[in-house]
């Protein structure tokens, strides 16, 4: 009797399981078809509803795959989405949900295809040669999903094209510093735990596949299932709402734009040839100093409680010195910032980057000798407009002799002053000095003598680097004042770091602390006597709002270069400059300065 009841229960279970699978097969197909038709099935306004929908979809796929042990792989595909369960609701919840949904659908469908390939490549002798390839795809899928999830957990944001470009445009050491800053030991332990889970379940999956009955499925059902997944992969990869594929597209487009900028160099110089026939301006030497990662909120000259900038504090009110109160960076990464700051391209015009003349090209066309002195690495993993612009300079000094291998340098920024002092005499020159500044890791940016704040906090280390930068600028200022024909010095930082929150300057976690930068200028008595009108206008604009992609227009005006297509309303040295926090932006136009809590 006991055996009979057991057999009946087993029969009922098999019947129910079969019907259950058929029901979910139909439901799963309907969900996919609705998605392919572009319905709002996955584009819903509440995160929890979205999570439930996509999570159920993965369950259905697992059941239909006749391998419940393979369910873990779907969970891995959905890790970024699952992390949203632990996040607070944000203002961009709908956009966030849609982005994660499309990525999860893309990853889920790709995982389904890999599963079928893996099963058939191991089940049939003729296909076993494909098994290692499919296994590699499976591992890559796991690593990708885990990396995305880990990044989101660490930063509460998705990887963007800017994130990828920042890594491509730096070098091994700088990338390492970036990862050390943004990923904690807890994140690493979690990653290792997931790898262990993956290895264990991969072994179980391999054993389980031997008893799977996928080969008993009707060929039509298999074909429909695989086709639906292929179509879903294609559709979800083509939509701009899939942050993963969209990020790859944006990265590719940006790199292509950089290549075009380099390729169009000769065309730009031909256009600038017209400057040769224009009246020549007076002789003079101008120095443009570019800082790195400097947050004005940690400078005592701007009101910080620690005496981090004693020299700037003492000189900011002297004759000929101008300290600007409301300067912002146009982005939070060096290459995007300097690509705009040093060319005619900015956030507010529609000029194609490849047609945008650089400040070096214009200075040379106006008969200035150009000098580039840098403590930064010359090339990263990718040639950028910044390296192209620097390479156009007639005289170059690179203290960091490495080419894309490391940003570690045996020279502190003070060594740049020694180079300045040894320059030959120029009648007309533009000298660009690019500091290592306050780039992380902060403790590597200053000698031990400047270790004033000795706590282990990253804030202490950052403040020490600010103190050293102030000392460097004091020495540099003394050196440039003594240059024959010196006219003026302009200093700005490429961007800032959000040190207090420990966020660095990652654009995907943007805060306005990453954009508030110092800007100051000094002009000789000779310059003030020759151009009192320019000096008066600059002084009038010391409290005006400004983004550093407009340095190009401002510097050309200061140097009195008669550039025919100068956007005068973008120059702090022009009387028509009327920009405010309302119309100025940062992060390449994505954020208005009026959103800054500290803006007027």
Protein described:
- With 600 residues, the protein is an alpha/beta fold.
- It folds into two domains: 2-246, no CATH class; 284-593, 3-Layer(aba) Sandwich (Alkaline Phosphatase, subunit A), CATH 3.40.720.
- Helix content is 49%, strand content 9%.
- The protein contains 21 helices and eleven strands.
- It has a seven-stranded mixed sheet with strand order 2-8-7-1-6-4-5, sandwiched between helices. Strands 3-9 form a two-stranded parallel ribbon.
- Helix 2 (47-64) runs parallel beside helix 5 (93-123), helix 5 runs antiparallel to helix 6 and helix 6 packs antiparallel against helix 9 (185-209).
- Keywords: Cell membrane, Hydrolase, Membrane, Transferase, Transmembrane, Transmembrane helix.
Keywords, separated by commas or semicolons:
phosphotransferase activity, phosphate group as acceptor; PEA_transferase; Alkaline Phosphatase, subunit A; 2 domains; two-stranded parallel ribbon; alpha/beta; transferase; Sulfatase_N; 600 residues
